[in-house]
Design the sequence.
């Protein structure tokens, strides 16, 4: 059974290994509430996973260490195990899904592990890791369903209670549930009046569905930009702990996650991966009650691939009204583009792309389409530009 003594022991073991990550306060991100960001994205290896992985490895017997360790991961646990093994002089082999971001794969190799890429998602990598464990005799380091791993993640809960005296609620990303189980257990044991909420991506809601149905379920598939929490099935131990200690579970969409990532970059100059931004998304889109409260959003990791980051930023701009595509049907005659551009400029829009296309054989022979991509301030600004164009006689099309 998980105990507070074990979490405290983990905190002592990790004291000279990890960073005690800071809290960043912001009242701008969610007006009417005081949001504090627990910056585990600035942790060693770029995520909280080093806490549980290192503590688990530190508790191995000499015989287990001699056999080497094996793990499976979507990327962050891989880096935690790789570094933990290296610091303890142990060989490590990590099974990762072949969909894992290249940056995470290369970082895992950098920290000293041998990497085995597996076709599929996390659960496929998990099965392969167990197979290799049985064949080669490695010691398996589970990414979440392990008492010592959970205790290591629970050290975040101890830090939060030290860092913020008047704490009303904590919002935690949930994949397999190790982080949520550890943090919720530590906080609820020491300060039960604090609300603790778990968040999953709507495209990978295994723990959410399990808790709502009061039984552990396995999804058929997952699809989300939050690859770090894309888990088909929660663990037995983590499910039991989350069911007992979480006050509620909610989900956020990929569009909401993208908006949260963009907001963290612009307002706080913080890079978060998809999984690391779900807690912020839950607060921003009021999935949990935050108004008038001191709320910690756990930014669990920052290991996002730069190519994915570029796509996420574009998506976030669209979904927050910062970018917009206008399609206008025109009569192809001189001065049309000038008239459209003048209206947009007068209202403060910034044209970043223009595509002119003559109509098909079924349309007016003098017609054309103008597609313009704009930088805008918000959705209200978009409506101002659209209304002005319509009032000027231009025909907007979908």
Sequence:
């Amino acid at each position: 059974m998980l105990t507070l003594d074990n979490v405290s022991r983990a905190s002592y073991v990790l004291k000279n290994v990890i960073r005690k990550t800071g809290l960043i306060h912001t009242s701008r991100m969610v007006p009417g509430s005081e949001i504090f960001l627990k910056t585990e994205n600035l942790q060693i290896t770029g995520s909280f996973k080093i806490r549980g992985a290192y503590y688990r490895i530190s508790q191995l017997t000499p015989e287990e260490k001699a056999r080497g360790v094996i793990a499976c991961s979507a990327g962050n646990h891989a880096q935690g195990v790789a570094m933990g093994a290296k610091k303890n002089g142990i060989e490590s082999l990590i099974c990762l899904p072949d969909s894992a971001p290249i940056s995470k794969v290369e970082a895992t190799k950098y920290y000293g592990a041998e990497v085995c890429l597996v076709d599929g998602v996390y659960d496929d990598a998990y099965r392969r890791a167990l197979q290799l464990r049985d064949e080669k005799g490695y010691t398996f380091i589970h990414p979440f369903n392990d008492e010592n791993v959970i205790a290591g993640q629970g050290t975040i809960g101890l830090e939060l209670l030290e860092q913020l005296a008047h704490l009303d609620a904590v919002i935690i990303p949930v994949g397999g549930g190790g982080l949520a189980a550890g943090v919720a257990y530590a906080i609820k044991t020491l300060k039960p009046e604090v609300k603790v909420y778990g968040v999953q991506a709507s495209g990978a809601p295994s723990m959410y569905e399990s808790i709502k149905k009061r039984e552990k379920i396995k999804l058929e598939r997952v699809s989300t930009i939050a690859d770090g929490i894309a888990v088909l099935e929660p663990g037995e131990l983590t499910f039991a702990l989350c069911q007992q200690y979480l006050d509620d579970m909610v989900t956020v969409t990929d569009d909401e996650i993208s908006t949260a990532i963009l907001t963290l970059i612009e307002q706080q100059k913080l890079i978060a991966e998809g999984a690391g931004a779900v807690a912020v998304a839950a607060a921003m889109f009021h999935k949990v009650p935050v108004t008038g409260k001191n709320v910690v959003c756990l930014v669990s990791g920052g290991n996002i691939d730069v190519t994915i980051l570029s796509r996420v930023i574009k998506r976030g701009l669209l979904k927050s009204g910062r970018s917009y595509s206008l399609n206008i049907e025109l009569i192809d005659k001189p001065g049309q583009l000038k008239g459209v551009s003048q209206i947009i400029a007068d209202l403060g829009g910034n044209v970043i792309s223009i595509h002119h296309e003559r109509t098909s054989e079924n349309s007016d022979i003098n017609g054309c389409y103008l597609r313009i991509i704009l930088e805008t301030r918000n959705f209200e600004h978009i409506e101002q530009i659209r209304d002005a164009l319509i009032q000027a006689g231009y025909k907007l099309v979908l």
